[in-house]
What we know:
3 helices
Amino acid sequence: MEKLFKSLIIVSILFFLSTQTALAQSYQNTAGEKVATGIANMVTGFIELPKNIILDSEKEGIPYGLTVGVISGVMHTVGRTVVGAFDVITFMIPTGPSVYPHYVWENFSRETTYGN
């Protein structure tokens, strides 16, 4: 009986530790992805300006792209840069990146959105 009890304790300890290791790995991946996308968005946020000019020009025409596209491009440039800085500051909180698409060069024809 004592041998069985010791075996159960050892198996329980191993099971508990393996679960913690799996959770820690997931946390590291999430935090690492969040800090990487945050840095990339802070550095490349300025690409939102030409991106929005191009997208608005294709949708509504060149005059619209050169007016509204510039304004929305500036707004998204500031937004992506600030959200990127926020993601870097809060990378220890395990949430996903806050900007979609995650990088400005991903799916260049898609408008940027924010939030989870």
